[in-house]
Amino acid sequence: MAELRREILVAAGVLLDRSGRVLLVANDWGRRGRIRYTLPGGMVEPGETAAEAVVREVREETGLSVVGIEHLAYVVQVEDPRRRERTLAMAFRVRWEGLLNPHDPDGHIVEARFFDQEALRERLGSHLPLLEPLLYYLETGEPGHYHAYRSWSEPGRRY
Question: pTM here?
Fold first, then answer.
C-alpha cells in the first residue's frame, strides 16, 4: 500500500438488550441519504482513552449511559489502499442503562435500534469488517480476538 494518508482509531460498544439483540446506529455520514449501520462508536479524540471514547460515543449516538465496560470484545484492523487509510477499531462489551434518545452532535445518526442476528446480517452484510467479528463474538462469546482485513469488502482473518 502507498504511504498512509491517515490512521483512524475507533472505539465502539456492543450493547445487548434482554433478548440478546444488538444495538446498531444508522449513520448518514455524508448527509446524502446513504445509510450505513454500525455499532455505536466513533473516533477516539486526542487525550482520550478508547474506554472513555466508547462511553462518550454511546451517550452521544444513543442517549444511553454506559455503567460498566465488561471486556474488550474484539479488535478489527482494516487497510484501505484506495483511500490510503488504516482503521483500528476496538469493540467493547458494555453494560448500559436508560432509554434510546440519540443526541449526536455531528448530526450523522438517523436511527438507533436493537436488531436480532438475522437483521444484523441484512444491515451489515456487505461490510465484512463490521459483520464477521460481531457475529463471531455473538456466536462464541469469546472476547479478545483480532480480525485483520485488506479492504472493506473482502473476507478477513481472525487471530
Answer: 0.93
Give the count of beta carbons closer than 10 Å to the beta carbon of residue 37.
20
**Looking at the DSSP assignment, which residues form a beta bridge with residue 86?**
7, 79
Can you state the angle between helices 117-124 and 128-140, rounded to 10 degrees?
A: 160
Which is higher by pLDDT, 117 or 31?
117
Count of residues in the chain: 159
Q: Give 31's pLDDT tier (boundaries 50, 70, 90).
A: low
Q: Where are the alpha helices (DSSP H) in 9-72?
A: 50-62
Separation CA 129–CA 158 (nearest Å): 11
What are 73-110's pLDDT values in tens digits?
A: 999 999 998 889 999 999 999 999 999 998 888 788 99
Q: Which H or E element spans position 96? A: strand 85-97
| Average pLDDT score over residue span 52-67 | 97
Beta strands 85-97 and 6-14 are: parallel
CA 2 from centre of chain: 26
CB 73 within 8 A of CB 11: no
